[in-house]
Request: fold
Amino acid sequence: MIEHVITEDGSSSLFIPELNEHYHSSHGAIREAVHVFIENGLKAIRKPEINIFEVGFGTGLNALLTLNFARENHVKIIYHGIEAFPVSEDLVEKLNYADLISKELTEEFKHMHLSEWNKSIGVSDYFELQKIHQKIQDFTPEINSYDLVYFDAFGYRAQSEMWDITVLQKMYDMLAPNGILVTYAARGQFKRDLKSLGFLVESLPGPPGKREMTRAIKV
Reply:
């Protein structure tokens, strides 16, 4: 049974006892997500309209942070998040992200979770969302269609199939030239697989609790 937990920065996460796996870093869910996906991902894309694909929509934290960035910076973002196992409504009710990021986004956060799957919805003037209820292994991406991939699957120990080179090939294919993939992970084999596909791989300082993270650019 999935449990709601509070991480070191006061923000929510979820814990799966059977896998001994957290959805986010126990050192701080918001802290990690901002560092990996916003500071080292989204801020590296300099375009007035940005297409983002997230692997693992999960709690919706990355989507909410991205919505907040779009609102503050007046950038149009089209956001697609794939999730095979959606978080239940009762657990969503316990997530405190809007309280900590901006209470003005409380209704938008609820709207994101309650919206229909596999359908594009306008969450705000600057943010369009489509949640895809599917396994990434069964998903066929449109080639060269995304500027940025948030790769936020569970870790290799818990979900090794998500880190298979066939999945990473889909990430390469879906990214536009000079598109970026960012992830909290820094496993050696993972980085070697990215390089073998044609990515330029950067090892960057990680969030609290992790020495490194990875950013990969399609060149």
Observations:
- The helical segments are 29-39, 61-73, 89-92, 97-101, 106-114, 165-174, 188-197.
- DSSP finds seven helices and eleven strands in the chain.
- The chain has a mean pLDDT of 97.
